[in-house]
Amino acid sequence: MHLKLNKPYLIITISLLITEVLIATYLKTGFIRHTFGDFLATILVYASFKSFFKINAIKLGVAVLLIAFTIEFAQLINVLKILNLENNYLIKTILGSTFQISDLVAYTLGLITVIILEFNLQ
């Protein structure tokens, strides 16, 4: 893993971050908020790492998926309540507060999409 600025990934990261903020701000329910937002979240994390590090796509994809799954399973044990952060709107929005199997599927599909794109664009 080497530190190297990758401008296209940085642009993708900024675009996805703006999109996610808009989704979180203006959409409170529905497919785009609850499923598509999670799909995009894993792509955002992947792109943010690729913005600054030259790293193997599969290794990074697995790492991002592990991060996403860890956060989702932390919701299952209600880690925000354990840490007394359940009333912190920003943390609750970023980390989520309810465990859903569909979120795991969305994260996985997001990473599969990234990997397919990575290998087809090379």
UniProtKB/TrEMBL annotation:
Keyword flag Membrane: yes
Signal peptide: none
InterPro entries: DUF2809
Ranges annotated as spanning the membrane: 9-26, 32-49, 61-84, 104-121
Keywords: Membrane, Transmembrane, Transmembrane helix
Protein name: DUF2809 domain-containing protein
Organism: Postechiella marina
